[in-house]
Specification:
Length: about 350
């Protein structure tokens, strides 16, 4: 009995006192309506055509150039290309890190938000250069997504300045730490390639994720994953420098966002919201205890396919779902002449959705 009592005391002491990397704060998660109303459960994403990636996986994002070549970034660090008319993606370059968001500029260069290395650029021959790895005397810890405006200015997110994907076991693990802590260590950064200067436009974001320049070029949309919402930062006009909520209280964790046809945007919801995470939002002490549990006992992402199309004002136009999770952890999409290419955190293929 004494041994048992000693073990119990040790376990309790561990759960209460063992150091953890997070310093959570309390907040109030909005009440989730789940898959109802405009997000009512359906199977519109269940009939994806698949383009296998061979030994690679996790096609996080897409970019398409003027010639119709589609690029995607993968877990191995490789950027794969699929030229117009070809059936498969083939390896092009490897960043030596973890490329996430990508975008072609008007000169055919590929901009790469690399979670390990910062903002990179690859010229058409594949030569890599680091554009930004620190801003305002602070390191870019977790470059996540990137977009480029018509005037050449580049906008990218530093998802968290605290939890490095390289140091904390990967992009997913670092994102979970940022969301569980909820202090808001993420930021939106603007880079001027002419002046070669960068500055922070927004900070205090709870895992700053997807980025998309608005269709009229007047603002930039940013996904704040940890608060289930999309924000708009005004670049010009009477609201310059102001931030508005485009859509909030989403039923899942928003990942990437990209322009779609007719003034709309595609928004990937990587996983449905977690009821335990929401219930513990105002209980930071218990969230620290949860972080001390074995990983399999902590809240986990759910493999549920979900792609949303929204208007400029945040109206839900379409909700494409696959409750089976056959194509899991959807991060976003890009519209092409061949259909809508759908990306994923973990899939070993690229999904293609044919729209009527």
């Amino acid at each position: 009995m004494k041994v048992f009592g000693g073990v119990v005391i040790l376990v309790i002491g561990y759960l209460l006192l063992w150091p953890v990397p997070i310093a959570p704060i309390g907040w109030q998660a909005p009440s989730s309506s789940g898959f109802s109303g405009e997000f009512a459960e359906n199977n519109r994403l269940a009939d994806l055509s698949l383009i296998e990636l061979g030994a690679d996986k996790g096609p996080e994002d897409f970019a398409i150039n003027v010639a119709g070549t589609i690029a995607t970034a993968t877990h191995s660090g490789a950027v794969l290309l699929k030229k117009k008319g070809e059936a498969a993606f083939t390896p092009w370059i490897n960043t030596g890190g973890r490329p996430l968001g990508i975008e072609f500029d008007t000169n055919g260069n590929l901009l790469i938000a690399d979670a390990h290395r910062g903002l990179l650029i690859a010229d058409p021959e594949g030569e890599l250069t680091v554009l930004v790895n620190q801003v305002e005397n602070t390191k870019v810890v977790y470059a996540d997504d990137v977009d480029v405006a018509d005037n050449g200015n580049i906008y990218f997110t530093d998802a968290t300045t605290k939890f490095s994907a390289k140091e904390y076991g990967g992009t997913l693990q670092a994102s979970l730490l940022e969301i569980l802590e909820h202090r808001g260590n993420g930021r939106l950064i603007e880079y001027d390639p002419v002046r070669r200067t960068s500055n922070v436009l927004m900070d205090g974001l709870v895992f700053a994720n997807g980025v998309a320049i608005s269709h009229d070029q007047n603002s930039v949309l940013v996904n704040e994953t940890g608060k289930y919402r999309v924000l708009r930062y005004w670049l010009v006009g009477p609201k310059q420098g102001q931030v508005e909520v485009v859509i909030d209280n989403l039923p899942g964790f928003p990942d990437n966002i990209s322009q779609a046809n007719s003034g709309a945007y595609f928004l990937g919801l990587a996983s449905p919201r977690s009821a335990p995470v929401d219930a513990l939002s105002d209980k930071p002490f218990i969230r620290k205890i949860v972080q001390r549990l074995p990983q399999f006992m902590r809240p986990q992402g759910q493999a549920y396919g979900h792609l949303v199309k929204i208007s400029e004002s945040g109206e839900v136009l379409q909700s494409y779902q696959d409750p089976s999770g056959a194509f899991p952890f959807v991060t976003g999409a890009i519209q092409t002449d061949e259909g809508v290419y759908v990306s994923s955190l973990t899939a070993r293929s690229v999904g293609v959705l044919q729209l009527n």
